[in-house]
From TrEMBL:
Protein name per its UniProtKB record: CRISPR-associated protein, Csd1 family
Organism name: Peptoniphilus harei ACS-146-V-Sch2b
InterPro entries: CRISPR-assoc_prot_Csd1-typ (IPR010144)
NCBIfam families named in the record: cas_Csd1
Lineage: superkingdom: Bacteria
Length: 654
């Protein structure tokens, strides 16, 4: 199924389930076709209340966050500098009848609608706005004292604060919406709430297409039904269109077709449904994630077009180890999200991609609590506004929800690492795609890790999403970048723990690591030298008391040690001797000193038994397995509860 077909079918699902135009769920609003919406900021939309005699009852600015749903035409929805009025809701320049081109075109269009399909609600509005001094009438309800300085620019005195101040408002940029008092003998009815009017306007628009001699009837390539050929597709982001205008430039079709309309024929109704659904997904609370600049990820289910299951493959995932041990491999809770994010990673965009709330994002997969039909389809798309006129589809995938579940389990099984925090104790951590990109390619700056080229980040994000959703392995370029980064510890003053954590999670599968526990029988050269590096670092750091800002010799020589382990091992052994003496003379730390010395002796013996120090092969650069030996040895040194808390404290200060 194509992206456009998925959007079309999803909109029809919304129609069948009464999800269209539902103002009770503003965060997931799906608009009726041939309609648009605008959000109030508390200053940009005035609503006037009129009685059935077309008399003004009241006027007020809508509260910040209020939404207005209003009818639009093909021309008005994409207007820029030309004259193209909306049928009802519009700015004061159009609505106030002052014999300008805008106001005249507004009333002519409205009267054409009334002549074709009379409606009491529209007639009441029409009869009011055609009266004289409507502007002054509305202003008198908004302000006690005001002055019109020029055209529709108004000055009034604001007494809401201790010191009164004069405020200027340009009403040519303010929009006007309507409500009718006790409409049809019932409650006050606003334009946004008038479902009957929405249906009538849709019908009127379709009838006007039929009356237009220039409207060409076609069989729509998306719906398979007879429809009128759409020449002007509604913009999706600003003025940029997901579906290009059929009157496109020659380079868009020459070589394969003779005429632009031979590329694809989409009906007006299908076009409206596709774009309205795409807009709803783009603004939806659970269906869209911003990747930076004008790039977004959209995801939804065929039977959950608002993604109420809150499924989000872009988030980092965390699972309680205790819960994992209690549950079976088939019926365990897969992922749990915590507010403990990768805080040192760049905050410019990371908190908008999905690492921002504490919630169980995969409740749907929990045993006994499946919230979606496993026979349903899952859709995920990446769209990018590549210019002011065009939105490009970067990626689209449709799959069975059951396969998605299998692929997510597979991904988490390969890409995770045990972690300890005070908030949720011991847990498995799977980094988000964004965290992987930042730690693989980010350069440490004042705000954290930053990837300077946003388009590069977007491409990498797409590759990781494809790997997660389609059940592929981690992209090799990410793996290679992480292998390089863990060799350069001093490049990450503030972000080392984040880099290390992500590296452990994604490299463990490549290195065949089955457990984070210290394996004292492991004889891999990289693993053993990694253990020694941890022991040298810990031994020296124990002499620093509470001064965690000092850099140990093991940290300073980290890169050199990883590249020439035998050579730098001898140097580090000499450098730590003064610190050994300090610990030996400190009665409170003598115990941990002997523990470290025993471990150094153990590892040294394993190396000498399995490798020849004199051979160049032994001194060649270590593989990425060294980081697992380092991490396992460091964790083993902290066996008591208080030691674990000290380790967590030190990691935060690293």
């Amino acid at each position: 199924m194509s992206f456009l077909t998925a959007l079309y079918n999803s909109y029809n699902f919304g129609l069948e389930n009464n999800l269209i135009g539902d103002l009770n769920d503003k965060s997931n609003l799906i608009l009726p076709i041939y309609h648009n919406s605008m959000k109030s900021n508390g200053k940009n939309i005035v609503e006037i209340l009129i009685n059935d005699k077309s008399e003004l009852v009241d006027a007020n600015f809508l509260d910040d966050g209020d939404l207005v749903i209003f009818p639009v035409t093909e021309d008005s929805v994409a207007r820029s500098s030309g004259v193209a009025p909306h049928p009802l809701f519009d700015n004061f320049d159009y609505v106030i009848q002052d014999k300008t081109k805008k106001s005249e075109s507004y009333i002519i269009q409205q009267e054409s609608w009334l002549n074709s399909d009379r409606d009491d609600f529209v007639q009441i509005i029409h009869d009011y706005i055609t009266k004289e001094k409507v502007f002054e009438d509305i202003l008198s309800k908004l302000y006690k004292d005001y002055k019109i300085t020029k055209d529709k620019v108004v000055e009034y005195v604001d007494n809401s604060e201790k010191k009164p101040k004069t405020v200027t408002v340009d009403f040519s940029k303010v929009f006007l919406t309507f409500a009718v008092e006790n409409y049809d003998g019932k409650k006050n009815l606003s334009l946004s709430e008038n479902k009957n009017l929405q249906e009538k306007f849709i019908r009127y628009t379709e009838e006007s297409f039929a009356r237009d001699k220039d409207s060409e009837k076609i069989i729509c390539n998306i719906s398979g039904k007879e429809d009128f050929l759409c020449l002007k597709h509604k913009p999706l982001i600003g003025s940029a269109r997901l579906i290009s205008q059929i009157t496109a430039n020659n380079e868009n079709f020459l070589g394969r077709f003779d005429k632009p309309d031979e590329t694809i024929k989409i009906g007006k109704e299908s076009s409206q449904k596709i774009i309205q659904m795409a807009k709803a997904l783009l603004s939806g609370e659970n269906t869209s994630r911003w990747l930076g600049e004008f790039t977004y990820v959209l995801s939804w289910f065929s039977d959950d077009i608002q993604n109420k299951t809150e499924m989000d493959v872009t988030k980092k995932l965390e699972e309680s180890i205790e819960e994992s041990n209690k549950a079976s491999s088939q019926n365990r809770q897969l992922f749990m999200l915590s507010e403990d994010d990768l805080k040192e990673i760049s905050k410019e965009t990371s908190m908008t991609i999905g690492d921002k709330t504490s919630e169980d994002i995969v409740r749907s997969f929990t045993s006994g609590r499946i919230r979606f039909n496993e026979d349903s389809k899952y859709y995920i798309a990446i769209i990018d506004k590549v210019s002011n006129g065009r939105v490009a589809l970067k990626y689209f995938k449709e799959m069975d929800s059951s396969i998605l579940k299998e692929n997510l389990v597979k991904w988490q099984g390969k890409c995770n690492w045990p972690r300890y925090t005070k908030e949720i104790g011991r847990h498995l951590y799977t980094p988000s795609p964004f965290a992987l990109i930042q730690t693989a390619y980010g350069v440490e700056r004042e705000k954290g890790l930053e990837v300077s080229k946003k388009s590069f980040s977007t491409d990498q994000y797409k590759n990781i999403i494809m790997a997660i959703v389609e059940g592929r392995d981690m992209p090799q370029n990410i793996i290679r970048a992480m292998e390089l980064n863990i060799r350069n510890r001093l490049s990450y003053d503030k972000s080392w723990q984040q880099v290390k954590l992500c590296a452990l999670a994604i490299l463990k599968d490549k290195e065949g690591i089955k457990s984070n526990m210290l394996d004292r029988k492991e004889t891999d050269r990289s693993y053993l030298f990694g253990r020694l590096l941890a022991l040298y670092e810990r031994l020296e750091k124990l002499t620093y008391d509470m001064d965690n800002e000092r850099v140990t010799n093991a940290e300073k020589l980290w890169t050199s040690y990883v590249n020439k382990p035998v050579t730098m091992n001898l140097r580090l052994r000499n450098l730590i001797r003064p610190y050994e003496d300090k610990l030996l003379n400190n009665e409170s730390k003598r115990g941990i000193y002997f523990k470290i010395k025993r471990n150094i002796g153990e590892v040294t013996n394993l190396i000498s038994e399995n490798y020849d120090y004199k051979l160049k092969e032994t001194n060649r650069p270590l593989g990425s397995g060294f980081i697992f030996g380092y991490e396992a040895q460091m964790a083993d040194l902290f066996t008591k509860k208080e030691d674990k808390e000290n380790l967590e404290s030190e990691e935060k200060n690293d």
